[in-house]
Amino acid sequence: MAMFSYEFMIRALIASCFMAVIAPLLGVFLVIRRQSLLADTLSHVSLAGVALGFLVNINPTVTTLLVVIAAAFILEYLRTIYSTYSEISTAILMSGGLALALVLMKFNQGSKGMKINEYLFGSIVTINRDQVIILGLMMVFLVLLYILFRRPMYVLTFDEDTAHVDGLPVKLMSILFNVLTGTAITIMIPIAGALLISAIMVLPAAISMRLGKGFNQVILISVGVGLLGMTSGLVASYQLDTPAGATITLIFIGIFLLIGIGKGLKSRYAKKLK
Amino acid sequence: MNYIKVENLTFYYGDEPVLEDVSYHVDAGEFVILTGENGAAKSTLIKNTLGLLKPAAGKATIATHNIDGKPLSIGYIPQQISSYNAGFPSTVLELVESGRFPRNRWFKPLTKKDHDHVKKALLAVNMWDMRQKKIGELSGGQKQRISLARVFATDPDLFILDEPTTGMDETSRGDFYKLLRHNAHDHDKGILMITHDHEDIKQYADRHIRLIRKEDSQWRCFHMSS
């Protein structure tokens, strides 16, 4: 295809494949732990980190990482206070993060406005070689962590009381998971954009949970759906000249709807046969 | 040998004391039942015992090793197990297999012995044929059975069971109590079970702990003159 005669498109495709593994691998755990909004929350909080970076003239990736790690700790604390209403903690942090970002941006008016926009909407086609390498390393790291810790994570995700009784360090694992999610989001934000990160993390997980039976099966299907949505979204955005992140998200939503309709028709047909 | 030792434990929900100066113990080879009215804080006592809640005063200790000197393993069934994480994407088999993980299998492959334990546990609750079913598709009673199977698969030294017989018929309950007694007396397991069924169970349990509410009645008059 002509689009792959451009080096930037090849880089974008490789980055998409890496993110197609990273995002669902974390997303499945987020969805099951009823923290679907965590990715969205940390994306908003990370904007405060970006704005802080521009304000104090430090690499925004560094300040974002620090802010997101702090947010991960605060989030876990709030989650224990509002244990039966975990969405309250995400709502508090999300609004707090966005408010802080807006205030910091006010102090920082002028030439940096454009860059904040990049973080809001992302620009996968402007990804550079270093960003692709960092994404690749992150993917390898996450896959290794998953292979190593999939059993403790399975029990933790199933039920935290059971995990505690089984001898797992529940609090530490939860905080480390949030920090890991935050780090992945920090890396992906300039590429996918804060507004679309959540969709990329949650939708493949939501789709695979409708299709898979077992836990490992759901993880594998979510990565497969991630790869399908990311690559086809990228190609479609090139052909249609539409924003890549938004196109990818719409494709995921399309797959989600198709699966829903297909499942509905299948169960109706099965009932008729009975 | 004490598997559980609770000394002068006090616990508050907010400013309200719900457990005051509670002491009890459960030994290896002993089948102990814990009863009390609704709201007597039986589940709260168990959660304090397991370290899931932090007491305001007193101490709850669970032995670190069993009577053979090996690390002690615990099998816990919480109350209302049927409402747990209904959308959790797992098969029955995966969930029951996870009962073997605390047996030093977090990072090692399951052995033939582990798989045999899992099969035996699923057969014991009559759920072997449903092992490939998604747990979200099971009824409340079936979820209760697989949570029992997970505990059986662990083959724990200490069973802590919070009303595990809810919904069981009389015959099943009797057989279940016999099985617990057999485990305590013939395999030196420690068993602590919350139950409302203290008449049926009297002949099987070794000891009966009764939690008593301070107030005379949990029911208060709601009449208002209009």
Automatic annotation (TrEMBL), chain A:
Membrane topology annotation: Multi-pass membrane protein
Highest taxon listed in the record's lineage: Bacteria
Listed InterPro entries: ABC_BtuC-like, ABC_TroCD
Record bears the keyword Nucleotide-binding: no
GO biological process: response to zinc ion; transmembrane transport
Keyword Transport: yes
One Pfam family recorded for the sequence: ABC-3
Keyword set, alphabetical order: Membrane, Transmembrane, Transmembrane helix, Transport
Spans traversing the lipid bilayer: 12-32, 44-75, 81-105, 132-149, 175-206, 218-238, 244-265
Gene Ontology CC terms: ATP-binding cassette (ABC) transporter complex
Record localization: Cell membrane; Membrane
Stated family: Belongs to the ABC-3 integral membrane protein family.
Protein name: Zinc ABC transporter permease
Classification lineage: Bacteria, Bacillati, Bacillota, Bacilli, Lactobacillales
TrEMBL record, chain B:
One MF annotation (Gene Ontology) recorded for this entry: ATP hydrolysis activity
InterPro entries per UniProt: AAA+_ATPase, ABC_transporter-like_ATP-bd, ABC_transporter-like_CS, Metal_Ion_Import_ABC, P-loop_NTPase
UniProt keyword annotations, A-Z: ATP-binding, Nucleotide-binding, Transport
A Pfam family the protein falls into: ABC_tran
Keyword ATP-binding among UniProt keywords: yes
All copies of domain ABC transporter, residue ranges: 4-224
Cited PROSITE patterns: ABC_TRANSPORTER_1 (PS00211), ABC_TRANSPORTER_2 (PS50893)
Domain of life of the organism encoding this protein: Bacteria
Keyword Transport: yes
This protein's name: Zinc ABC transporter ATP-binding protein
Organism: Vagococcus elongatus
